[in-house]
Amino acid sequence: MASSNPVVPLDAQISQADALTYWNSVPATASGMLGGYPNISRVDMRGSLNFLEKLRRLHPSSSLAGSFARGVDCGAGIGRVTAGVLSKVCDVVDVVEPVEKFAKEVHDAKLAGKGTVGEVFVTELQVWEARVKYDLVWNQWCLGHLTDEELCCYLGRCGNTVQEGGWIVIKENLSTDPMAKDVFDEVDSSVTRTDAKFRRLFEEAGLKIVRTEIQNGFPKHLLPVRIYALQPQARL
């Protein structure tokens, strides 16, 4: 006899309260942001910059000339990517970060580029509403805290806020589950999605992949990391 118990979606287990409790327990350091692997930071940032360079070279008609006027680092943590990547390619970088102690660190971050930090929004991604248009919307290692529905809605808003010729970039771990399923992490209350799931959600949000590739150079025992550049379908 089939079970009468309804199947609960995996992402229904995500708890924003549990996630915030976890991140508030983590030190505001590169090691804390990177799960105890601060040595991957340089490789990660180099991969991100190379990806952006390839985007602009291969899609010159879609990219903006010179630096991006304004970018936003969503789920920025202490501003590691803001300082090491976005400040090199954007004149101004806004920040969205729900953990207040991390957001405070962004103001004091030593920027590697000439860009400056603009507004810092201490709020969760699923409720954040952009006040301006952005040339580059960056999301890295943060979207696992949103349910599928929340992520789809959030990505739809990103599509509405990105400037003509700009990009939405997503850089996230991928599930390696042998059954090709998403995986829930009880430690930080997040979901690691499959590439197929990401692609489905992008399509549902009205976004199309312009370019994607796997981040190289990370230790083999870590989850694979894929980076996607997206634009609204209507503009392609």
Q: Overview of this structure, please?
A:
The structure is a single chain. Helix 3 runs parallel beside helix 4 (80-89). This protein has helices at 16-24, 30-33, 41-58, 80-89, 100-107, 148-161, 195-204; strands spanning 68-74, 90-96, 116-121, 134-140, 162-173, 183-185, 190-192, 207-214, 225-232. The strands form two sheets. Strands 3-2-1-4-5-9-8 form a seven-stranded mixed beta sheet, sandwiched between helices. The chain starts with 15 loop residues before the first helix and ends with a strand. The protein has seven helices and nine strands. By secondary structure, it is of the alpha/beta class. Strand 6 (183-185) and strand 7 form a beta hairpin.
Quick rundown:
The chain is an alpha/beta fold and 236 residues long.
Order of strands across the main sheet? 3-2-1-4-5-9-8
Strand-pairing-aware structural class: alpha/beta
Oligomeric assembly:
single chain
Radius of gyration: 17 Å
Order of helices and strands: HHHEHEHEEHEEEHEE
Separation of termini? 50 Å
Shape: globular
Strand tally, please? 9
Blueprint (SSEs and pairs):
Layout: H1 16-24, H2 30-33, H3 41-58, E1 68-74, H4 80-89, E2 90-96, H5 100-107, E3 116-121, E4 134-140, H6 148-161, E5 162-173, E6 183-185, E7 190-192, H7 195-204, E8 207-214, E9 225-232
Parallel strand pairs: 1-2, 1-4, 2-3, 4-5
Antiparallel strand pairs: 5-9, 6-7, 8-9
Helix pairs in contact: 3-4
Which key features would you list for this structure?
two-stranded antiparallel sheet, globular, 236 residues, single chain, alpha/beta
